[in-house]
Specification:
197 residues, 10 strands, alpha+beta, 5-stranded mixed β-sheet
């Protein structure tokens, strides 16, 4: 069974629709959704180019100014390339899963970092119609003292869960309104209002 709402248009990034798997008494057992940012593949390519430059420097260029500048250049290029590759590939997409007891958020192709939040710790879930990397200081897994924690892979819709200890967790995901409905149903809350993020 699939939810039918369409993902918003007008973004440079890719969109996937959320879906529900199975029903129990008319209620979805598991809701899954994801969001993708294809623009980050350009940053991954820049990281690969940095690594290639470091390898090329190590193998093909004779350095007359000494070994230390060569080692520093090679290590710097390779390290910068690896950081860029991991940072972009890890956050090129996010997968969200809501089951009867847990909200799980997995990043990238290997699912790391992964966050699991028991629904017993959630006091509210609200739809956030416009989440931007600018609000959070960039893409990726973010933390800001005044806003809480977020996984931001693209600009656009998302949702915010508020936890019993006062913290909040924001995720950009397609069909976020459906995720909010499922979470609020699990918590026994009615309706939903847009979040101010």
């Amino acid at each position: 069974m699939r939810d039918q709402p369409k993902a918003p248009k007008g973004h440079d990034e890719g969109h996937d629709q959320g879906r529900v798997q199975g029903c129990e008494d008319g209620e979805p057992v598991v809701w899954t959704g994801r969001a993708t940012n294809r623009v980050q593949w350009l940053l991954a390519a820049a990281g690969a180019a940095c690594m290639a430059l470091g390898i090329d420097l190590a193998v093909a260029h004779p350095w007359t100014s000494g070994v230390i500048p060569l080692v520093m250049s090679v290590v710097g290029c390779v390290a910068a390339g690896l950081l860029m590759l991991y940072g972009t590939i890890a956050f090129v997409h996010v997968a969200v899963r809501v089951d009867q007891e847990t909200l799980e958020v997995r990043c990238g192709h290997i699912g790391l970092p992964r966050t699991r939040i028991p629904l017993a710790q959630v006091v509210d879930a609200v739809f956030a119609p416009r989440v931007t990397p600018r609000q959070w200081g960039g893409w990726g897994y973010r933390w800001r003292p005044e806003q809480g924690t977020a996984v931001v892979v693209r600009r656009g819709e998302g949702f915010v869960v508020r936890l019993g200890d006062g913290r909040s967790f924001t995720v950009t995901v397609d069909d976020a309104e459906a995720a909010v409905r499922v979470i609020r149903d699990r918590l026994g809350l009615a309706g939903g209002r847009p979040a101010s993020v």
